[in-house]
Amino acid sequence: MELKVVEQKPLKRIYYNFLAICSAIIVGSLILFLSGYGFFQYAIWATKLKDIFLLLVICLAGIFFFYQQAQRKKLVQYSNFDDKIRFYESFYRNRNWWQVFSCVISCFLLLITHRLIFLAFCLWDLVTMLIAYPSPAMIRKDLGDEEIMVN
Q: H or E element: which one contains 78?
């Protein structure tokens, strides 16, 4: 029986880097929001721009969902464990890039519309980023193997 060990340190490094990026984006936009700064907060066309961005994000989220599903299937098909781990690190990094993209869009919409609902979206993005911590249980679930030891 082959001993399967996953190093958690590279995944934690990826996670903390992306968490710092999202936190900086949210804090920066929150400071701008609280100071009353907004890009086009009184323009009527800003509402249409907001609708376009929301529709774009929904479409991109759907595309990204199907892309992630295809990547998960590809991940399961790897027979060499080292290749599987390398692919998983790339998979995890892409997932975190999506979090950053979602965070940027939420903060941008907050500054365009100056509506509190988008502050809630920003905070939701931060919460979902906190949930994405590479815990041993999440790593085992993503890799589809309960016998993996996380170091």
A: none
